[in-house]
Amino acid sequence: MSAPIDWHARAAALSLNGQAFIGGRYVPALSGKLFDGINPASGKVLAQIAACDAEDVDRAVKVARAAFESGAWSRMAPRERKKRLKAFAALIADHTEELALLETLDMGKPIRDSLAVDLPLSAQCIDWYAEAIDKVYDEIAPTAPTAVSLIRREALGVVAAVVPWNFPLLMAAWKLGPILAAGNSVILKPAEQSSLTAIRLGALASEAGIPDGVFNVLPGFGETAGQALGLHMDVDAVAFTGSTEVGKYFLQYSGQSNMKRVGLECGGKSPNIILADAPDLDAAATSAAWGIFYNQGEVCNAGSRLVIEESVKDRVVEKVIEVGGAIRVGDPLDPATEMGAMVDARQTERVMGYIEKGVAEGARLRLGGKRIVADGCFIETTLFDDVTSDMTIAREEIFGPVLATIAAKDIDEAIRIGNDTTYGLAAAVWTRDINKAFKASSALRAGVVWVNCFDHGDISSPFGGFKQSGFGRDKSLHALEKYTELKATWINLG
């Protein structure tokens, strides 16, 4: 049995790279500007990160466009492209411990989750799309014998992938897999709070044989690098995961520039509905606790609204409080830690502001509600009871470990409450009645509806939202639709 890893020693020994990756090499921002990458668990500076702006975006787009037009990747034989993308996935897996450590240092999630969840799923995602490359066929339309209509999917060209800080590597993988599988060039723009794994991917992509210029990484701020990508006249598409507010900016940027394609996976306020006839109320309550407290509540589809049938509400709430109160919050580098630090001081203050508003509006604070230590970004697991749908904590995305519980007299009221939101990313219903399950899954306006579970899935199953949670799908073969154009070629045989 191997000795436990001393993650603090590993962290101290790291040599961190904060540069952009353009055209197959690491480069500073043209302006020479840098910003601090902060460890949210300690408040200490991890690395100086290149603050890329419009000039760097223009440089990267030109390199990516030249690589695309050269055909080095876009016209590579599918079998060869598959081989190299699989090699990329294997290198991610081979560097699991290094990348997991970077992920935890950068955004505060527990090392146990980075190791067991983020890294395996990221490598699996890239590998899955690599396998799809030579298995997705084009079509022939059912025309008369006097003509043949070929229907092909062609790569878009240059795609900007703008990803969030809550799952930096995994959300990048959800974009990179289908973007690269389809033959596009990509510019990956990580969130400024979590740039390190994205930057490291540049070297791994090059090592895997992905041609120079096909894979580029631009760290920087949303209002500079992100905006410049959205407005650039030679970017063919933007794939964005993040807040609804910023997603709307990218729609505006598209209209103000070249009408580039935009795919959005935005905010959520997911209802988790537990009915009195749930197969196992304790299991449902335990799942509900982890459905909001996992990853510090920084999950777009977190079950932040727990809607419970009145007759079992007290029992379920007590179990959620028991489970949530026992979750170990602390040092993200301690393998025993179950909930780590919020991503930064700004997000910490934002969440605390929502907790204060919940109290002010009359919700009953039953669990947590406080910061844990003054010099780190830690917040207790928090539960509000007796919440009504008009309260701010029931309507706005908090993106922290804050649960709002709402009573419903029956399934119809639960569905109504569930749909009473501008979002539509995910939902869940717990019942042993198959008729109720189908009724809820059909009526709930959400891209994913779970029955007797929460946040389950597979790379083969699509993920995305309704309403202001965005449009387009990540995961599954459907993701390829965002990064390809349909072309029909009509051949006259008459």
From TrEMBL:
Belongs to the aldehyde dehydrogenase family. The active site is at residue 265. CDD domains: ALDH_GABALDH-PuuC (cd07112). The keyword DNA-binding does not apply. This is Aldehyde dehydrogenase. Keywords: Oxidoreductase. It comes from the Bacteria. Residues 31-488 form the Aldehyde dehydrogenase domain.
